[in-house]
Amino acid sequence: MHIPAITGTGVFTPQNTISNAELVVAFNAYADKFNAAHKDQIAAGEIQEKPHSSEDFIFKASGIEQRYVVDKEGILNPDMMHPMLPQRSDDDPSLMAEMALDAAQKALAQAGKTAADVDAVICAASNLERAYPAVAIEIQDLLGINGFAFDMNVACSSATFGIRAAADMIRSGSIKSALVVNPEICSAHLEWRDRDCHFIFGDVATATLIERAENASGPYFEIKSTRCATDFSNNIRNNNGFLRRSRPDGTADRRDMQFMQNGRKVFKEVLPMVSTHIADHMSDEGVQASDLKRLWLHQANKSMNDFIGKKVLGRSPEAGEQPNILQDYANTSSAGSIIAFSKYSDDLNDGDVGLICSFGAGYSVGSVIVERHD
To answer: I need a surface site. Which of 63, 98, 108, 319 has the fewest CB within 10 A?
Structure first.
């Protein structure tokens, strides 16, 4: 049996940012136009008036201050309210593969490795740009990697599920290394016209190189243990898909074709599930709360992370113990915990133990216990 280790990570960050102030101006302009166009129906009680959003509402609800996006102009256009991405030829790299390529190259550089050292690519993301061919195979081709590649979708938990899959293959000896990439174009599946969620998501891509520890050429994080769990729920859902055109109102501008969630139920049901999952994982591996130097949690909501951190540690996390990046990136789905890990792991010392955890639609939750080695 071989020991799997994280030897490098990379983050691709789009150039465009949207502040809460910019987002509120655009949303409120859209709401005013909608209310003016439907004033008679609103007066008759047939439809509800669109309420205004505010910076204070967004920050209190999420802790988010801004988000990175691949396209800003379309999102902030009150007559459009979604990103506008240019059509690419089938002979050109897809946007998702292009983003992943940047993050993967950074992960390889950090690890001191090249494409020749990689055996597999797993593209683990919430929303894949197409059904086939697999985006992972395109990324493999762009990098010039031999071996194999496949796509994986477990919504916001995709990164940790991908890490588990890679770690298991390395432990068994079937591969020596793998890149787990998480390109997330969340802005394209978010309903920017919905006040309750228009601020949640941003775009990014992350990559994690996992190798046999014996092949690491520098400091690394040994993957001590992984654990995944799922429990079906409709409270986070997107009904878009290839069957859409085959149904009577499939091409209509339907709300359920974008991101939907019942936020209150998600908060109430996911938090106990995640807290128990982490506690049981740690207990079974003999890891005490006092052993944990760092928690890299899924970046969905600051209140959720604060709750989980307090449950896991048995106290409120101190500064730096549970780093948040969502104030800058917003929710980036599967990539969030990996951004936090990539940005806030270099300062750990030899022998320090930490835990990566992501959770979301499914419901799904994945956790990875790691130990630093210099």
So the answer is: 319
